[in-house]
Amino acid sequence: MDDFFAKMKKDLGISLNDVQKKAVLHTEGPLLLLASPGSGKTTTIIMRIGYLIKQKGVDPWRIKAVTFSKASANDMKERYVRFYPDLQPADFSTIHSFAFEVVRNYHRQMGISFRIIEGEQELDENAARDENIQMNKKLILRNLFKSIVGENITEDQMEELTTYISYIKNKMLPREQWSTVSCDVPKAEQIIIQYEEFKRADQNHILLDFDDMLTICNEVLESNENLLRLYQQRYDYILTDESQDTSLVQHSIIEKLVSNHKNLCVVADDDQSIYSWRGAEPAYLLEFKKVYPEAVILFMEQNYRSTQDIVKVSNQFIKRNKNRYEKNMFTENPLYKPIEISNLINFKEQSKYLVKELQEEEDLKDIAILYRNNSSSIGLMNDFDRAGIPFYMKDADNRFFSHWVVQDILNFMRMAFTDKRLDILEKIHLKFNGYISKQQMNALKQLNTNDSVFDNLLKHVKLQEYQVKLLKASQETFKEMKEMKPLKAIRVIRDRLGYDKALEKTCKNLGFRIDTLIGILDTLEEIASDLESLEDFAKRLRHLEAVLKRAKRMKGQNSVTLSTFHSSKGLEFEKVYMIDLVEGIIPSSEDRTETGLMEESTRLFYVGMTRAKKQLKLISYDYRDGKKAEESLFVADVKNIINPPDLSSPKGIITQKNIRIKKEIGASDREKVNGVPYNPNAIREKEAIRAGITVVHRVFGTGEITNVNEEFIQIKFPSKEKKLSIKACIDMGLLELKKKENL
Ligand code: ATP
Ligand code: MG
């Protein structure tokens, strides 16, 4: 046994600590390993597999290592191969792929055929016409929504509805309780009831989505003795990583599989639970002893991954959550560089800044750029591609290029080249201010000429009086557009042709999120900004779409990783940039409405921070597309942790001097801001202003803050108490913290 650990140390340079060793050695019976990020959970699981195979002679295929995404299954397999290049791999898989096997086996035995209605063959227009793919989950839901609610389902509603269904299934809620789950989609309960019936309408040929795979697998293992025995006998050891994201139905499947030997090793960190919206059940871990009274529970708090700078701040940061196991992550790793916080002047600077930073790097492989929403990647991709910076994107999102807003803009541009195509007009006639009605479109279709659609409308179709002028103007605008630079053209489409207004109306009617759509238009403008012609623009979009496809295959090459926070779970990089850290994104406005959501986005931020081994850089900005953006509350939190406003920071924690806040202020601004001399020590964040602290006001001198509300602070100066505008104090840099030693 000691030989095993000694060999591991010699071969891999990893000397396991006592708890890790215990976890490796405790092979028989249930074990729960609750541990902080970077404490070696995954490492321990892999070592345990090695130990089972090498020391205990277990057949690799009798060890099942369950992960909850394909990516983590691959990541684990890769690490395993690195650790034990000579050993056969254990059975690494996702819970879904295991469930699929059980479901397939069961249906085969029962002589029932089935079709999976979710997955790779996601919807696009062509697929929708394919008869087989008519049985796609989203199409079915779309049709049900239409027939039950009487309207077209919006993308947001679809997302909400599928999440609602997953949630119900993963929580194993019985039908009576479906109505207790809140869902903003009208008649959601009725829709799911009919959806379930629809899938089972043909008893000999049923339809299954991914959630069914889990629930049916669980039911089969419950009711079918033979199959239960078959799978129970197949594995002698089961291990699950990232178990904080396991749902009840998944736990239940695993419980059944191990119920004879109970050789189960569960590894989790409740602070990294980021899938509760999909029905993950971290609270199950609290019950572990109830399910397995003989279980051993081990805790690990030592982080081996990150520098002291990162570990200390992250550990403090996660404590803003109240609903958690109390833990204290620590590290023996040295200090290296403080967390860097950049507050850029605007959104555009962000990718410029990243390009500049990355151009100075020799090896991009160990660098990641993390963001909350996939949409953050498109603009980056455009700039990185231009700068020749190779990147890898695991969950590249092709939806941007096929999004209807992008298609609309391209159709407007096509119209600029020829205004004879009725098919194009048909697609956009409701989206600009010609106000062409359905009847008018129909009348137009009856004409069989190859003239300009506008000429035809004006000559042959009955129009409202106000339309005549508008249509003439639009016709002119489209003509002019042909020669415009694409950025100008997009602006003209949005303003002069009234596309933005039309979008607003669509949003009101159909419940789309206007911000998302405007975001897409802004991204298109960014892409267009340095292009000369409309053709170039269309070409550029096609090129970027190809680049995106390629980006999925760039893994392991000298390329920077772009990833969402969610997909970065379990991974580590030398250097991590967390970007778009502004209010509305993280936390989102929805997060702000509920403690549970707020805590989940805190955990998401924490997952991001704890990916970094050596350097962590947080980026926010003041403006985006001309609108004021506000630094994320979480960044403000990190600042406060690094540099507590009352300056009572103990030695060893980074102080004001070495935290680099890059406020990009022009040289002249530095000297005077709003006519007031620039004070580098002035309080610049609202969060730093709290009742009870002592400040120095540039004009009134030293005083104590007695009250703070949204807009005003009250400060008690020796002569009198004053009420001042917070905004003015911050913008003009009027306040400074009174240093402790001077008090
Ligand atoms: P996460 O919560 O992010 O999934 P984790 O707990 O699974 O993290 P690992 O990825 O296993 O952590 O380990 C983090 C890093 O620490 C890895 O680089 C690993 O090699 C290293 N490590 C783990 N244990 C030790 C140890 N005992 N000595 C030295 N390095 C270690
Ligand atoms: Mg891990």
TrEMBL record:
Gene Ontology cellular-component terms listed: cytosol; DNA helicase complex
Family matches, as CDD domains: DEXQc_UvrD
Domain UvrD-like helicase ATP-binding residue range list: 14-307
Keyword field: ATP-binding, DNA-binding, Helicase, Hydrolase, Isomerase, Nucleotide-binding
Gene Ontology MF terms in the entry: 3'-5' DNA helicase activity; ATP binding; ATP hydrolysis activity; DNA binding
GO BP field: recombinational repair
InterPro entries to which the protein is assigned, alphabetical: DExx_box_DNA_helicase_dom_sf, DNA_helicase_UvrD-like_C, DNA_helicase_UvrD/REP, P-loop_NTPase, UvrD-like_ATP-bd
Keyword Cytoplasm: no
E.C. designation(s): 5.6.2.4
Chain ranges of the UvrD-like helicase C-terminal domain: 308-570
Reactions performed catalytically: Couples ATP hydrolysis with the unwinding of duplex DNA by translocating in the 3'-5' direction; ATP + H2O = ADP + phosphate + H(+)
Positions of ATP binding: A35, S36, P37, G38, S39, G40, K41, T42
Tagged with keyword Isomerase: yes
Protein family according to the UniProt entry: Belongs to the helicase family. UvrD subfamily.
Protein name as catalogued: DNA 3'-5' helicase
